[in-house]
Amino acid sequence: MTVIESTTELNLPVEKVYAFLADLNNHQQLMPENIYNWSSTADEASFTIQNMAKLSIKISNRIENKELVAIPVEKAPFDVELKWTVADNGKGGTIAKHIISADLNMMMKMLAAGPLKKLADHQTERLAEVLK
């Protein structure tokens, strides 16, 4: 299992950050430019990754003000889990971590690990920008 993590710190309480992340409609604001054909509800989102694939995800697990997990709705080219965790930073702010876990063989890891890391980093950077 390949695990890719990206972390950001926000000057907002955990509840506010979690509320934003818990609604998949908000995730469009976190996506890079190569994501298009976005459609979503609070619990599901589908989109196209330019030159890659169409993907539909749904929330599979929620732990209020702690964790949010999304998985593909349909069979994806590889098993993948998208997780966000939020925790108090001890100063009234939030540490938000985006964790992408993907079951990649060596060939897929060479092709996909870089873009997945860029995606995770982009999303945490955008989260910090959007929730200033």
Task: Sum up the structure in keywords.
2 helices; alpha+beta; globular; START-like_dom_sf; SRPBCC family protein
The gist of it:
The chain has 2 helices and 7 strands. The protein is α+β, with helices and mostly antiparallel strands. The chain has one domain (2-130): 2-Layer Sandwich (Alpha-D-Glucose-1,6-Bisphosphate, Chain A, domain 4).
The helix content is 25-40%
What distance lies between the first and last C-alpha atoms, to the nearest angstrom? 33 Å
CATH class, anyone? Alpha Beta
Order of helices and strands: EHEEEEEEH
Q: Fill in the CATH topology.
A: Alpha-D-Glucose-1,6-Bisphosphate, Chain A, domain 4
Bulk shape: globular
Q: Which percent range describes the beta-strand content?
A: 35-45%
